[in-house]
Amino acid sequence: MAQQSLFPLRLALTASALSLPLSAIFAAPLQSEQIVDPSSLTAEAELLIAPIPDWVEVAEIPSEQTDATRGLAASTAVHSDQYMITQKGGIAYQRMVYRISDRSALEDYGTMSIEWEPSRSKATLHRFNIIRDGRIIDVVQKQGDFSLFRREPNLSEGILDGQVTASMQIQDLRVGDLIEFAFSIETSYTPMTGHYQNWHYFTGRNQADRLVQRVVWPKDRYLKVAKGEGLPDMPVQIKGKYKVQGFTQDAVDWEAMPEKLLGRYYRERAYEISTFRDWDEMAQAFRPVYEKAVKVPASGPLRDYIEQVRAENLSPRQIVETVLAMVQTDIRYVGNFQGLGNYTPASAESVWASKFGDCKGKTILLTAILRELGLDATPSLVNTGGNDKLEDAIAMPGWFNHVFVRLRMDGKTYWLDGTRLGDNNLDLLPPVFYDYTLPLEADSDLVEITDNRYAQPQITSDMIIDARAGFDTDANVTMKIIYHGDSALSVIQGLDEKSEAERERAIQELLDKESEDDIAFKSLEFIVDKPKKQAGFLFTGEMKIDWGEASDFREFLLDEMTIGEDFFAERDDDDYKQALLWANPSYASVNIQLLLPEDSAQIEITGKEYDEKIGMAHYKRSLSLKDNVVTAYTSTNIERGSYLPIAAKIWDNKSDKLFDDKVYINIFRSGTAAKRVANYDSNIERADTLAAGGDVKAAAGILNPLLASDPNNVKLLIARGRIGDDPALRERDLLRALLLQPRNMEALKAMAEVYLGQDNVSLGKTMLERMLAREEDNIWAKKQMEVVNGKSLAD
Predict the structure, then answer these.
(1) Which of 110, 134, 368, 560 has minimal CB crowding within 10 Å?
(2) C-alpha torsion 152→154→157→160, nearest 10
(3) CA 129, 134, 140 angle in degrees (round to 5)?
(4) How far does Cα 368 stand from its chain's mean position?
């Protein structure tokens, strides 16, 4: 499948997982790589030795090192990749010549290796030489045979890939030596015998004195070579019975492409080869073996199960949910990617008998049963990592790494994955973020999957803060955090794997982890609802609330109501023209109820309500007050998709304003009956609009009468302090607002703007410092402080 690699790289094993702050403790231990006993290797696992084939064009080693590689501890003198299409498949040939210029490179380049899968490929070594002072030393003749071993890095997860590695360490390697290493891998694929695919990407840093890329095929055969615009021209030539397409370039020095780009951009510096004309031809190569595998015998255990389900008189929906749950739960996942197992599925009957299968086997069994019960089920190829702009790429199986079931029922399309767990309710199936799929059906073509966001929150947090005991007493707190969907399944699985003692330790660890200086959790309960795919935690404890120091005015920051997401990322290469992929959609909500003391006479909630979509994020925030209870809700739903960095910068500027619009609960204690401070938001908004349009007089005409009847209304004072041309009048209103509410962020910000507008850096900086003391993450204040500090240095 993938092009065999020969570069001497140090491999780093990395893992990524969904971050679940409260459930990470339940993660299963990591499994190490397994190395299979060499004695288990079959006779097929043999490294052949033969001369370089006649169809290969052997490039001369440049006599002089070029500027592209000069100064490197080790460099590539020749990098040659060549492909030949054969009657059964194809051959991938590679020849590398490395130059050792410094002792620091001896370790990294001291071992050469070849990897292949013996049951469908054969590996042949053509050259392994050390060239020293013009003299050729045959390493195999000098040191003997390669060592063969078989790694199974995913054996603990039930996955076998059958890859064999032939490896040899070079003895007596010296500075000044050239290492010449040439080999080929001949591959035939079943069920697509006679077809071939391969690809070569140059996305990393590429430096070579000579680069050769070449594809050879019989001129009566079809072959498509898709070359990216970032590579040299690859003209087609006729040489006898063959067509040849390729290029040779000296002094190659290509910078690495930026990370995290979409696949469409990486294909610009790549070429792909395939013998398939289109997606339908590829689908038809796979379809016969899948159709054969789904056939159910007229009698036997599988037929008995199907008839048992039929006899239960279930609705079509109930049939699907029952059979899908059985395949996910009762059929163990074992991936056998050796030989035919990589593309050819096991039969439904054999998967049922063995009670295990990989994605192909589970899909075959699920498809077979659903079809027998009268449902429209079709196997469909996908790539779990997504395929950006696949409609622009050439057809080849390498684009896909997974197969699931497309179900059409009641006018809807469902995507059923037998390798998942817990999908016992079709209404709770997760969105599919795979971009495209290829159904294995007649007249097939790519189908775009348009899912790009979650329909319901994946994490919901509900908090009740009971402060009715008074401002000087700790509040009782109850916090419920619920994970939904796949996140919940991870929690449930972790809980199921823990003993009672382990759960108790986990509870204490979570209590310690989540407790902070101002909140102490005393108890924790687990919440599990498997049918609804929900799991989470219920915390109870006490919370210290910083109400401020004034006796007649109290305030409390509901920091959990802060919204705003940053999408823009600075790039070292300063290249913002290419689109990026936001690959991790998310949807979370927070709901808070704050029960206030009875002597809270007047209550003001600052912060706006939102129902706004900015870029790929949809923000909601609602705020209400009833009977001394503040209810605040916020949610952020971020889609998966591509975006331009320049657009992200605009989104971030908009979301920064949301981020800085904090929610404060302001309380005035006057001994009168509790009421909410009069809401003048619509009046203030009209005044702001008029002032922004230059009609300050009309704006003042709205605010002046309101302040005459409500002279201590902080919102009105701030609104009037933001407009006008007279700094003294603006300062008077804002100082009055700050006298009433010393920590009011809007007043501090407006006052900072007044002072900075007068170039009064000292007082402006004082206002900014007071803002950052209150909200250290305030984006506007941080940016202005950078400007102010720059001015101070200049002065």
Answers:
(1) 134
(2) -50
(3) 15
(4) 33
Residue 52, SS3 per DSSP: coil
What contacts 776, CB < 8 A, 6 or more positions away? none
Structure tokens at 694: 């230059």
Residue with tokens 């395929």: 387
Q: Which structure tokens are listed for 695? A: 């009609």
What pLDDT score does 193 carry?
A: 74
Beta strands in 511-609 (DSSP E): 519-529, 534-543, 553-557, 580-582, 586-595, 602-606
In the chain, the N- to C-terminal Cα span, in Å, equals 64
* Across 440-454, average pLDDT: 94
Secondary structure element (H or E) that encloses residue 700, with its range:
helix 696-709
Q: What is the distance between the alpha carbons of residues 156 and 34, in angstroms, rounded to a whole number?
A: 8
Q: In whole angstroms, what is the distance from residue 637 CA to residue 647 CA?
A: 18
Angle formed by the axes of helices 779-794 and 761-774, nearest 10°: 150
Q: What percent of the chain has pLDDT over 90?
A: 56
For residue 490, the Cα-to-chain-centroid distance in whole angstroms is: 18
**Amino acid occupying residue 784:** Q
Question: 32-46 burial, b if ≥16 CB within 10 A, otherwise e?
Answer: eeeeeeeeebeeebe
Number of C-beta neighbours around residue 401 at 10 A: 14
Pair 266, 216: CB distance under 8 Å: no
The closest alpha carbon to 587, from 486, 448, 515, belongs to 486
420 closest CA partner among 311, 325, 306, 305:
325
Residue 296, SS3 per DSSP: coil
CB atoms within 10 A of CB 642: 16
- pLDDT tens per residue across span 715-763: 899 999 998 788 889 999 999 888 888 878 889 999 999 999 988 998 9
3-class SS at 85? strand
CB distance 257 to 269 below 8 Å: yes
The pLDDT confidence band at residue 44, using thresholds 50, 70 and 90, is: low
* DSSP-based three-state secondary structure for 706: helix
Collapsed DSSP state (helix, strand, coil) of residue 506? helix
In this structure, the number of other CB atoms found within 10 A of the CB of residue 560 comes to 14
Alpha-carbon distance values, 689 to 609, 717, 750 (Å): 18, 17, 16
Whole-number Å distance between alpha carbons of 105 and 730 = 69
Give the C-alpha separation, 160 to 132, whole Å: 41
- 780 CB-side CA count, 13 A: 20
Q: Which of 768, 769, 762 is nearest to 792 (CA)?
A: 762
The residues pairing with 34 across neighbouring beta strands, listed in sequence order, are: 152
CB 695 within 8 A of CB 682: no
SS3 assignment, position 782: helix
Among 739, 742, 564, 592, smallest CA distance to 661 is for 564
Query: Would you give the distance in Å from CA 39 to the centre of its chain?
Result: 40
Q: Are 370 and 377 in contact (CB under 8 A)?
A: yes
Closest CA to 406 of 441, 356, 433, 430: 441
Non-local CB neighbours of 644 within 8 Å, separated by 6+ positions: 576, 577, 579, 580
Helix or strand run (H / E) with residue 164: strand 164-169
Which 3 state secondary structure label does DSSP give 503? helix
Full DSSP string of 359-401: HHHHHHHHHHHHHHTT-EEEEEEE-TT--TTGGGSPP-GGG--
What's the per-residue H, E or C state across 727-781?
HHHHHHHHHHHHHHCCCCHHHHHHHHHHHHHCCCHHHHHHHHHHHHHHCCCCHHH
Is residue 786 within 8 A of residue 794, CB to CB? The reply is: no
Alpha-carbon span 544 to 474, nearest angstrom: 5
Amino acid identity for residue 671 in this structure: G
Please provide residue 244's backbone torsions phi and psi, each rounded to the nearest 5 degrees: -130, 135
How many C-beta atoms surround the C-beta of residue 283 within 10 A?
24
Residue 646 has what DSSP assignment?
Answer: H
